[in-house]
Model the fold of this input.
Amino acid sequence: MAVKDYNPFAKRSTFDSRSLLAYKALTIISWLLVLITGATYTFSAPHHGHTIWAINSAHHTPFALNKFITSVFWVVLLIFQIGYVWHLYSANKDWVTHAANVGSHFIFHNLLTFGFLMLWTRGHFWQAELLTIVNFINLSALYFRHPVTPRIVHIATVSGPLAWTYTALFWNGAIMVGAHNLGARIVANIFIWSFLGYGGFFILAYKDYTMGFALSILMLSLALAQIATKAFALQWIFAFAIMGALAFFSLVVGVPGIFGKEGEAQRQRTEGAVVSHDAERQPLLRDE
Done:
């Protein structure tokens, strides 16, 4: 048998009934694990630990987030993920194949997110950062290996989780290194611009406006948290500037009818054609 037959992350053109059943079961179980754990630790602290937002409030780092905006981001993302699960049960074989191909990465992401929540709420930030790095690698591999997926699948399993994981690297990392002094804030004033470069890369290179919108929402969360804790500082000003830039360029890419002619990949989407090799650099231009 080929090596890819044993590799759960390998890209396949078809899946047998047993594999699909496994993906359906493990996807739902791992998704519920994140949902239940996240909801529980949002309102109730674990034994010898604290709630998710109690830890965020206790550490006024330059990358602390706003509780309300971040919670809304996650609620919306979880709803999109219900749509992704629905694709696994669709009568459309193409949708099922796309959903199953990203399934292993998504299940792994859920397990890593569950582990992160368990560690974060108990104050084990170094271990939580390690899991976040592994998840970032996992989701980055997913992005570049599966650039063409239906929009809901892409948002639910790729761009939404990847945008969050990139943010979590700094959210948790700032607490991990104890970023509370002036020097740490100066360094944070520099590193925050990486969000513009990171989001801009996907917007310009892949026409991925959902990545831009996701990061802009998380920048809004960061900006509101920073202005509430340290009004006379640069971090929230930079966060608002980055949020505005990402949102603007995402709109430029996402609403081509307003800002210019549609590209070749968008015409292919409208006509239902198979995306060409060149158009694979534009992962969101394929509707359901």
